[in-house]
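Hi Y.,

Following your request, here is the sequence exactly as I used it, all 164 residues.
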Amino acid sequence: MRSVLLMAVACVACAASDAEVKTAKTAVYQADGGQILQLAEQGAMDENYKIGPVDDGHLMFETVGRFYSPTGDLQSEGADGYVTAGNHSVKVSFIVTVQQVGANQFAVAVTPRTWQLIAGSPQMRELKPDDPGLPPWVLGRADHLQLAIYDRTKGLAVAAPAAH
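Below is the corresponding structure, written out as tokens. Let me know if you'd prefer a different format.
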């Protein structure tokens, strides 16, 4: 019992605060957009995400989708790269965009792209970020990735976006 309590306290201590997540989501960076994109890719790789398609022209990339159980446990690949996913398992990738907000100033957004398996359905069902059926841990993982990217880019952060 004592070890379970210590593990719970340790997990709470390492969880990001709402203020840290807000800072990461609202940060504005003074740099070249391509440089911010590269740092964002490194932040995603720090979190063990594989980088999928990269669109340098639009300053965005998507992580390779991974399957999770309905409760958020990663469903590992087995032989030949196949994943055994069950009813209500979800495939999640993250779209990371670097958006220009001022003269040589950029912000980073992380948006989950989520598909859910439904038993008996021939196609997966897309769950938009505002879908009430979206498991809450998906947005938590998006916030965690946002923080990892912020850790890589915070040295380039400025106080506020330039006024137009």
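The mean pLDDT is 87.

Thanks again,
Q.
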